Amino acid sequence: MVTIRFEEVIQRFHGRTIFGPIQAELASGRIVAVTGQNGSGKSTLLKLAAHLLLPTAGRVVVMADGRELVGDSLRRRLAMVTPELRFYPRLTARGNMDFLLGLRGRALDETAYQALLERVGLREKEIGTAFAGEFSTGMRQRLKLAVLLASGADIWLLDEPGANLDAAGRKLILREARQAADEGRLVCWATNDEREEAAADAAIKLAGH
Ligand SMILES: Nc1ncnc2c1ncn2[C@@H]1O[C@H](COP(=O)(O)OP(=O)(O)OP(=O)(O)O)[C@@H](O)[C@H]1O
Predict the structure, then answer these.
(1) Which of 46, 108, 128, 198 gives a 20 to 30 Å CA spacing to 30?
(2) Apex 25 CA angle, 208 and 61, nearest 5
(3) 38 lines ligand 1 (CB under 6 A)
(4) Which domains occur in the chain, in start order?
(5) Which Pfam families did the record assign (predicted)?
(6) In the prediction, which pLDDT does 209 show?
(7) CB within 8 A of 125, min separation 6: which ones?
(8) Which of 159, 148, 138 has its CA nearest to residue 52?
(9) From the centroid of its chain, how far is CA 83?
(10) Residue 97 phi, psi dihedral angles, 5° rounding
(11) What CA–CA distance (Å, rounded) separates 113 from 108?
């Protein structure tokens, strides 16, 4: 069981309040949507959950089986899909995946790699020898999903996961996220997409200041 608890969290930048105080708890087995208009702080909230950012006030506590996760113990269990993630443009899909998964001490054999490509709707004959810099934005988004699926993480923080995806790609995200939650993962996505909002089990709505 994994939980992320926001304890009276306030975020300010340059003295300007973005949101808060927020009191919320996210738990494994559920999809939580973070919603709100552009600039309301959705991405910021995910960064706080990932401990990539410290809140101006309050605490973000991540617990797993009664133990608090911090530093490496948190990073090992957490994966983030974000528009800020860039692939190395002069590496292939395989090269990028090997690099990113290698950082987590994971490796994929060829059979698992091919199965993963198929699962995210990337065709080997299209992308086999191409550099990631030649991919369309939707193909890159699918590759991010492949890295997520292979990461072994049980905390999924997804920033606009359906962005740049076609209808089939958006369905794929919904399906994979639901399966992940059913398998006991914690899924939290920041979204402005009504279908992703509707598919979530709960929502944190940021009002904007
Ligand atoms: N590191 C930072 N330093 C200063 N201001 C920041 C920083 N990060 C975010 N902000 C500001 O905080 C506010 C919230 O930004 P954030 O990216 O979290 O919003 P968002 O809800 O994800 O927006 P969008 O829907 O456009 O993706 C914005 O006004 C942004 O300019």
Answers:
(1) 108
(2) 100
(3) yes
(4) 2-205 (3.40.50.300)
(5) ABC_tran
(6) 64
(7) none
(8) 159
(9) 10
(10) -65, -45
(11) 6
Is any atom of ligand 1 closer than 6 Å to the C-beta of 47? no
Classified as helix, coil or strand, 167 is helix
Give dist(CA 135, CA 145) in Å, integer: 14
DSSP three-state, residue 89: coil
Q: Which ipTM was obtained for this model? A: 0.98
- Answer whether 13 contacts ligand 1 (Cβ < 6 A): yes
Question: pLDDT > 90: what percent of the chain?
Answer: 94
Q: Which two tokens stand for residue 121?
A: 């709707």
Q: What is the pLDDT of residue 151?
A: 96
Considering only CA atoms, which residue is closest to atom 3 of ligand 1? 13
The tokens describing 88, both together, are 């190395």
Going from the Cα of 13 to the center of ligand 1, the distance in angstroms, rounded, reads: 9
pTM listed for this prediction = 0.95
Rounded CA separation 8/55 (Å): 10
- Structural Rg of the chain based on CA atoms: 17
The Cα 67–Cα 77 span in angstroms is 13
Burial of 18 (0-12, 13-18, 19+ CB in 10 A): middle
* pLDDT for res 13: 97
Q: What separation in Å is there between the alpha carbon of 115 and the centre of ligand 1?
A: 36
For the chain, the distance separating the N- and C-terminal CA atoms, rounded to the nearest angstrom, is 34
Q: How far is the CA of 107 from the centre of ligand 1 (A)?
A: 34
